[in-house]
Amino acid sequence: MKRNTDRESLIKALFPGGIPRLWCPLLTHYNDDGSIDFDRMHAHFNHIVPGIKGYLIPGSTGDGWELTDEETMQVLDFAIGVAREHDVHLFVGVLKPDAEKMKKAIGRMLQALEGITGEAEVVSSLAEAHVAGFTVCPPAGESLEQSTIENELSQILGMGLPTVLYQLPQVTQSEIAPSTFATLAGTFSNLIFFKDSSDLDRIALSNVETGGIHLVRGAEGNYARWLKERGGPYDGFLLSTANCFSAELLEIIERIEEDDEKSAEAISRRITGAIEEMFRLVLPVPSGNAFTNANKAIDHYRAYGPAASRKEGPMLHGGIRLSDDIIAATETVLKRFDLMPERGYL
Question: Considering the domain 5-219 in this protein, what is its CATH number?
Fold first, then answer.
């Protein structure tokens, strides 16, 4: 497949200053009554925004699969406000199980964007809102044929909006095959990004040509090996751990760009070790997902520093808090890998 000049022009228009190499699926925080805590989200966002210029909101880490439609719109309104204030890029998560529900959600979001920006024309509305695209997963279902996946995603891509495909079989139980990806990439120039959180990397490691689609890895661990400068297949990262380890992840990228592989690997090993332990630690939590719960536990310490052990654990969307035992164990993990902040950002 030749590089798609229409796609290339679209990407340049969306990212005139270049595409951020590290993206963050921002956490959603909650008050005691279960409502969204936007003050807390502002504090968290302000902490990481100096280094991170691209956000997926709401992503899986931000409870995108669990939020109600009303909550999703509240989070979208928040995201557009901070994106416009800080001049950063947004991908809007449309995490729904099938094309019909995706299309309805996108319609609601476009209507909301028009109301927020005052722009009736879609391209102008997206630009004013700093929205660079809509992020969708393949339709959910373990036994889906690739023809069904292709047909449903074609319905979304056929809307003509800049689109990110998100490979997340841990949730959808379905996966876009390399051949299906190649067909979609060759047909739709508005397919601009592909995020893979599967930890299988089948598309990135296949021989299919991407036609200029930007590939970002969403699976955690062994970060230093995956970028193109190291011979890997990815242009950048879209990582849940960017909520907590943005400085460290950016340093990995910088060290790789400077050909300092030894330093990049050393930082990568620390984060990989910590996050692997954290994922195991939160497995028994009966609400949310491991990406969300591990990062909420770590962010608790990023927010409050060592004093976090004396505070209640963060509230989850399901209405429960992370337990005192998990908070105490998180402190041990962060100290072991020298990732405990001296003071919190709150």
Answer: 3.20.20.70
